[in-house]
Write a structure and sequence with these properties.
Largest sheet: none
Radius of gyration: 19 Å
Shape: elongated
Helix content: 55-70%
Number of domains: 2
Structural class: mainly alpha
Length: 100
């Protein structure tokens, strides 16, 4: 978030609080559960889609993208440890708009 965006967000919050001080008391926050992360089946097709999408979007670092590409193109074998890392990266991509 840029400094200007942060300042604008603070102004918006201040305006809301000035007009309705109890606004944030009334807002209920749903617990964050990442259903997609835990239930998503990691396949070579999904990994390839992740690589192609992130090549354009540039959400992941170069090393993270290479890590996923190694599994997508069969250079490394996927095990539970790597699958958990891939799911973590998948979650970040989904937060940025990736639909697998």
């Amino acid at each position: 978030m840029s400094e200007n965006q942060r300042k604008d967000a603070i102004k918006i919050i201040e305006n809301i609080l000035a007009s309705s001080p109890n606004f944030f008391d009334e807002v209920s926050v749903a617990p964050i559960t990442n259903v997609n992360q835990s239930n998503q089946k990691i396949s070579s097709e999904l990994l390839t889609k992740m690589v192609v999408w992130d090549t354009k979007a540039k959400v992941l670092s170069t090393k993270e993208l290479q890590y996923i590409a190694d599994f997508a193109y069969g250079l490394k074998t996927l095990n539970n440890f790597h699958e958990n890392n891939i799911k973590r990266h998948l979650s970040r991509l989904q937060d940025a708009g990736f639909v697998g």
